[in-house]
Amino acid sequence: MSIAPLGRRRLAVTGSEELGAYRVLRVADPDGPPPQPGQFTMLAAAQRWGGGEDERPYLPRALSVARHADGESHYLLEDVGPGTRRLCELARGDEVLALGPLGRGFAAPAPRQRAILVGGGVGIAPLAILQDALEADGIETTTLLGFRDGARAQGAALLRGARVATDDGSVGHHGLLSDLLCEELQRDARCEVYACGPAPMLEAVRSICAREDVPAQLALEAGMACGFGACFGCVVPRRGGGYLRVCVDGPVIDAAELERVDEHAGAPA
User: Fold this and answer.
1) Under 8 Å CB-to-CB from 87, ≥6 apart: which residues?
2) CB 3.0 to 4.6 Å from 99: which of 42, 89, 131, 262, for a disulfide?
3) Looking at the structure, do residues 135 and 243 belong to the same domain, yes or no?
4) Residue 46 forms part of a structural domain
5) 141-147 and 114-120: which strand pairing?
6) pLDDT (tens digit, 9 = 90+) per residue, 45-70?
7) β-strands 67-69, 114-120: how paired?
8) Strand runs (DSSP E) across the chain, as ranges?
9) What is d(CA 109, CA 216) in angstroms, rounded to the nearest whole number?
10) Separation of alpha carbons 10 and 68, rounded Å
């Protein structure tokens, strides 16, 4: 597991490109440890990070690393509130404060098993770096992505060869992403499922994989104040009792460890 250096790093933004309803923020991080697929960074704009002089600064946003190459990390953003809106405004030459990589990432599938990548909305981000790593190791991947509409479905370009489902039927399968997953498992259940997305989608994946006795790893997302387990603001119930902290026990958690996926433990759709 990659361990982040202590303290936040001040890093330069190298670019920001539109991808349908999303933005891909590129940040130079030549001296940081390379992230493992599924790890995240606590990210904040270095300037104008907050509501104003008389208001408290925003908390950093926990963002999955979508891709990392040549000392540059990519993050997938959606404007869903004031904090993400500020990050979406950043352009080449601006700076961010970064703490990461943090958390536990994905583990490789068992030998001779393919990987099914299942992502919803902005939660597709960690599946891009995972696809890069698995295919570099010669592991077969099948990618299934779900979005609300056509503008968001353009985010599928972040990954290669994806089958797409949309709620409004504007792109690909008209219906639930879980429909595509069930089809794939009926075709060949010798696989491991890797998923990230909104909580209802993750709960559907967990339930389907439990029913079909297919191993699954779920990348959860939750509101985080610290990112390293101190505040207990991101806990989820553990099967058999107790709780798991998404930031340190995850964000990638074996589906068999979860009693359920709570509404707050998923990426925004």
Assistant:
1) 25, 43, 45, 61, 75, 77, 96
2) 42
3) yes
4) yes
5) parallel
6) 999 998 766 677 788 999 999 999 99
7) unpaired
8) 9-19, 22-28, 40-45, 61-64, 67-69, 72-77, 95-102, 114-120, 141-147, 163-166, 173-174, 191-196, 216-219, 235-237, 243-245, 252-254
9) 10
10) 17
Residues 243-267: tens digit of each pLDDT: 888 888 889 999 999 988 977 665 5
Total domains in the chain come to: 2
Using only C-alpha atoms, the chain has a radius of gyration, in whole angstroms, of: 18
By residue range, what is the domain housing residue 229?
114-257
Q: Of the residues 71, 102, 133, which one is the last residue of a structural domain?
A: 102
Q: Using CB atoms within 10 A of its CB, is residue 231 exposed (0-12), middle (13-18) or buried (19+)?
A: middle
- 97/118 same-domain check: no
Task: Specify whether the CB–CB gap between 242 and 249 falls below 8 A.
Answer: no
**Nearest-angstrom CA–CA distance, 154 and 147:** 9
Contact 17, 75 (CB under 8 A): no
**What number of other Cβ atoms are within 10 A of residue 58's Cβ?**
17
74: in domain: yes
> Could you tell me the two tokens for 173?
């399968």
Is this structure's pTM higher than 0.85? yes
Cα distances (Å, whole numbers) of residue 22 to 16, 107, 147, 188: 10, 27, 12, 33
Same domain, 143 and 222: yes
Asked if the structure places residue 150 within a domain, the reply is yes
Residue given tokens 């075709």 in the structure block: 187
Tell me: pLDDT of 210 over 90.
Answer: yes
Pairwise CA distance, residues 102 & 234, whole Å = 14
Domain boundary pick from 102, 122, 151: 102
102, pLDDT greater than 70: yes
